[in-house]
Amino acid sequence: xxxxxxxxxxxxxxxxxxxxxxxxxxxxxxxxxxxxxxxxxxxxxxxxxxxxxxxxxxxxxxxxxxxxxxxxxxxxxxxxxxxxxxxxxxxxxxxxxxxxxxxxxxxxxxxxxxxxxxxxxxxxxxxxxxxxxxxxxxxxxxxxxxxxxxxxxxxxxxxxxxxxxxxxxxxxxxxxxxxxxxxxxxxxxxxxxxxxxxxxxxxxxxxxxxxxxxxxxxxxxxxxxxxxxxxxxxxxxxxxxxxxxxxxxxxxxxxxxxxxxxxxxxxxxxxxxxxxxxxxxxxxxxxxxxxxxxxxxxxxxxxxxxxxxxxxxxxxxxxxxxxxxxxxxxxxxxxxxxxxxxxxxxxxxxxxxxxxxxxxxxxxxxxxxxxxxxxxxxxxxxxxxxxxxxxxxxxxxxxxxxxxxxxxxxxxxxxxxxx
Length: 419
Hints:
Helix content: 40-55%
Largest sheet: 5 strands, mixed
Number of helices: 18
Number of strands: 7
Structural class: alpha/beta
Strand order of the largest sheet: 5-4-3-6-7
Oligomer: single chain
Order of helices and strands: HHHEEHHHHEEEHEHEHHHHHHHHH
Radius of gyration: 31 Å
Strand content: 15-25%
């Protein structure tokens, strides 16, 4: 069994390392006079790094043979193995010594290790976090460092994000979120050599300090009360005890699920989405007039005025577009929640714009992707995008002082300002 090299033994062995070859220094000096680059492909420091590494491996082998001379009598050097190494200084071929008993386990450059520096790993993760595709990362590293990294290697390096991602998805949450927005994004992933649609549901919360926070994202092939109940139970298991207002885009089964999990939570359906869905079924020649009449409903001063204009809308357009009017009537209790609040709160909750704005920012990181090779690849880029976007969420949303004061009046005793 291979022993770890002791510091003092290695230091003794390092004293016996031969100095760098004269040819190496002559080549470096000659290259400097010729104006050759120090870094990158064919960089002068690449040859220097190669020789330093080569000598250190020889020292490791000498130390291994000396320390194990009694346990492995007769063990000796037995040739070399070659592999291409990638580093921020450039790429080079490394010759790793072998021993006859195959007990030598190098510590400086481990077996199957092909990337030398942690700096290069961090560069790959940083480029990935900024939304670069694998091909973009490969080209960048080739241009800057003169190294060639395969897509499989890049994927393996970025997989180091997965434990951090899992910890983030299970992290404890605040006990109260004043407003929560839910909306879906659509992506494509490969499954069994087929491209399939993947729906990601994001949950954005507003803390009592007025700051935005992505509580989590959830993947599902289909939505419904059962799925949303699982999402809400996950939030509860992570510490959420109360939500004042939930703003949603007519998500199927969600109102029922949230009423079961958080019965005190008020639900506000996105009015903008309701309007868009209505206009789709109005003929082009009627759209301008219909929209003008509809504005009296959703821009009314109060709920009574809105309901009066909704009746007028029904009288004028009900026979021609009964499906549209029926949709407004059936969803009215959840569409009209915002009328009870002041203009500051109305502007914040009558639409899911806050989370849609987040989605537009996420698209900047995913726009270069056609179809993700697997679900983990999608999750990694979403996690990186969330981290990058959240760095800008340092200030509370505008007019939050007035907003939280009014929410405290509408929801007495539910906002703990001391906790």
